[in-house]
Structure of Tyrosine aminotransferase:
Amino acid sequence: MNDKRVHGKSAIQPKPLNGTGVTGKGMHGNGIHHVNVNGSLYPAKVKSRRQMWDVQPSEMANNTLNPIRAIVDGMKLTPNPDKPMIALSIGDPTVFGNLPTDDAVLQAMKDAIDSQKFNGYAPSVGYLQSRQAVANFYSCPEAPLQAEDVILTSGCSQAIELVINVFCNPGDNILVPCPGFSLYKTLAVSMGIKVKLYNLLPEKSWEIDLQHMESLIDERTSCLIVTNPSNPCGSVFKKEHLQKILKVASKHCVPILADEIYSDMVFPGCNSSSLASLSSDVPILSCGGLAKRWLVPGWRMGWILIHDRNNIFGSEIRQGLVKLSQRILGACTVVQGALESILNNTPERFYRDTISFLQSNSEICFNELSTVPGLNPVMPSGAMYLMVGIEMERFPDFKDDVDFTERLVTEQSVFCLPASAFEYPNFFRIVVTVPEEMMVEACIRIREFCQPVMRRSWDQCD
């Protein structure tokens, strides 16, 4: 309503009387009703319309749903008491203790705490020195960065939330990979933003079906999300494929949210270019953080890198991000204090060892499950995940991937995440961060689980 109002306040303001801030109409200067009783100011009594307690959750709360929790919480997970549980479902590399972060990372945190310089509030976008450290670490000639191009956030998840918020209004739509990280939909739907799923192609190492993606774009498409390397697929897009993605975004003038939390967690022989380094005209907000590459997800340190091609974002998007970051008081200050040292002093050996371990476990899992009839694993090229297709027609005892993975827990105490949680049925995701001996044992159990089911299927055919 804008009749007789300017910026939400009445265009006609009553005059204060007697220097008290109380007007002749009983209005305080801020528009709140007051009455004067014995020289004191009290709020005017307003008759309540409520006759009973009726406290309801907000629409945003009701619309918030994590697809993973929705599926997992509904599963009947009763492990086989004779076999210890092997959980291959949680994307947390710290769970089993076999992938500790580097001593240099821990020392940086200890030094930050001991300095006692980082116990107070930081600017909502982060300390300038810490932002400059991130800018220096990720800057390249094709995509240069300065401190002003970096916003520090409480984990990569908050970075993603801020980007979706700054790009989208209720009623807009965003393009999200399928299968893809469930958080995108959780955040968008809660804010009244429509999610359009574009297909990834397992037969092409999970490349994007570009024709399908482009067909989903309309006048209300406010953002394209590209996840590279991928959760849940472990895929890494080649440079040529990334260029084709940028071509579609450029053609339709759609900005990109690049989820690059797994950047540089790429197996030898594969190259992972950042989208921004390949873009000449598409503006990109890249989201990343310490969680995965440095193996400290609980430290909650993320960032947004602003790559504004041709000043398309201008000051408006930047200011929007600053304002949104002010809703909370920013990322953990102690981790910010350690950030420069973490980025500059973590040895390359640590990165190499982590990637080598992930690649080895991925190869073990892929090679073992490739020989199981009815299972079709897709070899990853990075990140921490491997997707396995289920030929459901060869497993008539199970109605879907949720039923399959539920029974796998019951019989073999191996928990893999059904890909229905990523809106991609008849697959399941394996996290490859477990110790090698557990990876081998899990594959043996999966084989044992599938064999009697296959035998029953063959018996029925006979």
About this structure: The mean pLDDT is 90. Residues 75 and 376 are 23 Å apart (CA to CA). The domain at 75-97+349-461 is CATH 3.90.1150.10 (Aspartate Aminotransferase, domain 1).
